[in-house]
Structures are given as structure tokens and as C-alpha cells.
Structure prediction request, 144 residues.
Amino acid sequence: MKMGETRLVVRVHGPKGYADVEMVADTGATLTTITKTIADEIGLVPAGRAMVKLADGSRRAVAVADADVEIRGDRAPVRVLIGSADQVSLLGLTSLETLGLKVNPVERTLEPSEFTLYALIRRARNPGRVPTRVKNGELLRSPF
Prediction:
């Protein structure tokens, strides 16, 4: 079994355009990270700073911005960290999950992932009839 880094090109969109960025898919990183050079190129403006925990256990405040990431034509808005010029660009777990992707470490590829929903779903007492409720004297159909 051979495992290693999963590298891919991710299109990152900002107000001034987009950049195709080579990234390492890192399921240990919560957020996606790009360099300040790329952020400036596509017009990302920091929305603030976030305290992050680094792999060595130290903590650091890092600029954050909102961008869109695109992989294989699927595009979604995500929060990104803006790192230094020598920072390795990372595709974080929230971007992967938002796009419905997971890492296959053996093949070193991304593959579709199922979305998970943990919610209480009430069932109708009489499945043959559509449950209803009344609000302000108006009859409403219930999604349950």
C-alpha cells in the first residue's frame, strides 16, 4: 500500500478574478490556505484574523478572507487563511466537505463523499395523509 500527498490544482476566485493554485489536500487543516501573493492577485481583502493552531502546537493569528474555491467545475464559498509568501497552499477539510469530496490516500485523489445529516425527523402518525397545521387561522402543510 503506497500513500503520500494528494496534490491538485484548485481554482480560487476573488473580486478581481481567479488563480489556479497547486494545493496539498490536508484533512488535518480546518481551513484552506493560500499565499498573500495569490490573495492580492485575485483581490481578496482580509475580513479579520483567526487564531490557528499549527502542527507544532504553537498558535498564531492569521488573516482570513472569503473566497470561492472550484474543483472539477463545482464552486463554493469558503473562508480561507492568507499565509506568507512561502506558505504551502493547503486545501482544508471544510472546503472538501463543502464540495462533497474526500481524500483517497492510497490513490492520492479526491473522490465524491456523502453529505451527512444528523437531525431529528418527525414522522407522520398517519403516513397516508399529509400532516397540516394552522397558523393565524390559515391551514399550512407541514414538511413532516
User: Anything to note?
Assistant: The first strand starts at residue 7 and ends at 14. The CA atoms of residues 84 and 104 lie 28 Å apart. The mean pLDDT is 87.
